[in-house]
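User: Predict the complex with alpha-D-galactopyranose.
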Amino acid sequence: MTAMAQALAEFRTHFGGEPEGVWEAPGRVNLIGEHTDYNGGLVLPIALPQRTYAAVRRRRDDLVQLASAGMPLTKPVHLADIAPGQPADWARYPAGVLWALAEAGYAVGGVDVAFASDVPVGAGLSSSAAIEGAMGAAASDLFGLGLLAGDAGRAKLAAVCQRAENHIAGAPTGGMDQAAALRSQAEHALYLDCSDGSVTHVPFRLSGPGLALLVIDTRAEHSNSAGEYGARRADCERACERLGIASLREVSAADLPTALARLGDERLVKRVRHVVTETERVRLAVQALNADDFAELGRLFIDSHASMRDDYEISCEELDVAVLAVLEAGALGARMTGGGFGGSAIGLVYAGAVAAAQECVRTAFAAKGFAEPAFIVAEAGGPGGRTRVPRGA
Ligand code: GLA
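Assistant: Here is the predicted structure with alpha-D-galactopyranose placed in the model:
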């Protein structure tokens, strides 16, 4: 059964009758630009074809009731009772979106929602932003908010979803994942400037040059709400204070040596060096993509991984082993992607060598006694929105 069909089936089982519609939003893979979003920097994610579906019907009252494939029905919560940490578990993400919409002055009401997803959960592919995006898209259409019609509305909705994640789910993330879920274009990477929210869509089709983007889910634990992500953010804020600037984006690659000399703290030096060089690598990656220079893109991936491993210190053994194994299998480049401390790595590999690269990673993982990794060959999918449900589905 497809995830869309599963969302419909869950809806009928838990709520009876038919939903008013189905909405969807994708997971994402970030090509390059890690931990730059909350520093006003540049990022370059693609939306995945894998998505989360939400079958939704408005209620006459202000209750929010949520179902998800394979989970018990959540306890209904009044819109007015949604608050930091409430409701618990995964329900915080969709409930948080309704809270953030109301906070932003949009009139929303109660809903029954059934979710199903084919975005791998816990793989660092933004399954939470996919839930938020699907809920936000549904609310926009059902409550007549009109936020899906153009990029300006979608940018507002992405910001609402980020607020849900920050305030209700308690994860101090930047806005990259929600932008990828709602503002991407199929067959393009989303070049997002987090200093002003502007986007450019960069063509991203690897089949022409005979390449593929292999995503390796290391199955290693990761969590953005856990302390390390917040600790990196706090380091960046401390560095900004010392430099007397509002955001690390104000430090250009040319200014970097002077800025580092003023920090006087080895840890902050490493953090700032990562953030500033990483934004520069995003700029160069876009140039490389526009010039079909995939060898250069691969080199930038390799430098980015080294910077995350050595300076930002957000990699882990599984990610390093995965990156090394695909490179040994002949990949043009490889890096960890997402928040770090586990989750997924990506490799830019020749299309004909995908199976061999997977085998290389499997062998390396087995030798280390790690869990069996999982793989996706990623393509750039379209943004979230209303799902066209086939008749009779
Ligand atoms: C997580 C966060 C994003 C971003 C990345 C790191 O995915 O949700 O906002 O900070 O980590 O680039």
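The first helix runs from residue 3 to 15.
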